[in-house]
Amino acid sequence: MTLSRRKRFRAGVIAAAVTPIFEALGGTYHWHERGTEHLAYLTRVGRPPIFAFWHGRIMAGMLYFRDRGIVVMTSENFDGEWIARVIRRFGFGTARGSSSRGAVKALVQLRRDMANGCPAAFSVDGPRGPARATQPGALWLAGATGNPVVPLHIESSRYWTIRSWDRHQIPKPGAEVAIAIGEPIWVASTDEPTIETGRQEVDRVLARLEAETHAMLGEVCA
Question: Between the chain's N and C termini, which has fewer beta carbons within 10 Å?
């Protein structure tokens, strides 16, 4: 998909406008972490992770994982264009494609980037939903590379909710923000039954991690 010059210009304007806002907001958050030992383990064994999270947590995830050389699949539509421009400013790489178009090209790039040691990340229910239903791309990449999927969830004590299909959450200034990182999920192959089993497992783990972040915030805010 090729965007018009006008849409590319609009995407650049949006990216230039929101980047300093996100920077300013991020500097006020109070982070609470659980599960970072899983990332330390993968670093020791030389297996870059494939992060899996809900589309509605892109903004918070971008701030937490900034400047780590993570490559993210972003769609080739207008929203994907301005999102790609924003996340590149925060130290991410991008592979353009989605579950609906350009997926093969993007997955080939991600496989190449992972072979060079880069972690990858997927908003696994994106780019258009249905919300909180994992798509197979992250599982296929895990089966193709031998690197594990690492589910994570982020929740905030105070936030704005965007009126979008993903109910995107933007933590308010000074919010307590909890991130729970799950154990690596290894995917043995790219055959359809294995991918489907992994997809269902990611859904289950993300639901558990969401409950865990709510409990973390309850402890902090009590």
Answer: C
Q: What's the order of all strands across the beta sheet hosting 30-34? A: 30-34, 176-181, 149-156, 50-53, 120-123, 71-74, 93-96
Average pLDDT over the chain, rounded to whole? 94
120-123 and 71-74 strand pairing = parallel
- Between 115 and 77, name the one with better pLDDT: 115
Among 102, 105, 95, 112, residue whose Cα is nearest residue 48 = 112
The rounded Cα 220 to chain-centroid distance in angstroms is: 25
Position 150 scores a pLDDT of: 98
> What DSSP state is assigned to residue 57?
G
CA distance 149 to 52: 7
- In the chain the domains, ranked by start, together with CATH numbers, are 5-221 (3.40.1130)
Q: What is the pTM of this model?
A: 0.93
Give the span between the Cα atoms of 116 and 129, in whole angstroms. 30
